[in-house]
């Protein structure tokens, strides 16, 4: 199972940092359970979170935080999926 977001526009020199969050504050990192990829084209930046072997414990609220690395307090929180 995968979740993909597409970002367009923005500053080419200050690309946004994307954080995947499970629950209120558990940042997801690439590893045994999750894979994260990003692809860039001329106008669109695509980020994908892939669940390698989804389990019932993966149910919950997932949030993606998007912000410029320099301005971490200006992150945009967007709830994107609730698995149940």
Written overview of the protein:
With 84 residues, the protein is mostly beta strands. It has one domain (2-83): Immunoglobulin-like (Sandwich), CATH 2.60.40.10. The protein contains no helices and seven strands. The chain has strands at 2-8, 16-22, 26-27, 34-40, 44-51, 60-68, 76-83. Strands 3-2-6-7 form a four-stranded antiparallel sheet, with no helix packed on it. Strands 1-5-4 form a three-stranded antiparallel sheet, with no helix packed on it. It starts with a strand and ends with a strand.
In short:
This protein has no helices and seven strands. The protein has 84 residues and is mainly β. The strands form two sheets. Strands 3-2-6-7 form a four-stranded antiparallel sheet, with no helix packed on it. Strands 1-5-4 form a three-stranded antiparallel sheet, with no helix packed on it.
Key words describing this protein structure:
84 residues; three-stranded antiparallel sheet; Immunoglobulin-like; mainly beta; single chain; 0% helix
CATH topology: Immunoglobulin-like
Q: In the CATH classification, which architecture applies?
A: Sandwich
Report the top-level CATH class. Answer: Mainly Beta
- Helix residue percentage: under 10%
Overall average residue pLDDT: 79
What's the structural domain tally?
1
Counting DSSP E segments of at least 2 residues, the number of strands comes to 7
Q: Kindly report the oligomeric state of this protein.
A: single chain
Order of helices and strands: EEEEEEE
Side by side, the strands of the main sheet go 3-2-6-7
Ranges where pLDDT stays below 50 over 5 or more residues in a row are 70-76
């Amino acid at each position: 199972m995968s979740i993909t977001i597409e970002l367009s526009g923005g500053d080419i020199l200050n690309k946004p940092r994307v954080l995947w969050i499970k629950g209120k504050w558990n940042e997801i990192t690439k590893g045994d359970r999750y894979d994260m990829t990003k692809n860039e084209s001329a106008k669109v930046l695509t980020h994908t979170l892939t669940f390698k072997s989804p389990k019932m414990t993966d149910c919950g609220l997932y949030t993606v935080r998007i912000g410029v690395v320099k301005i971490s307090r200006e992150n945009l929180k967007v709830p994107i999926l609730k698995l149940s």
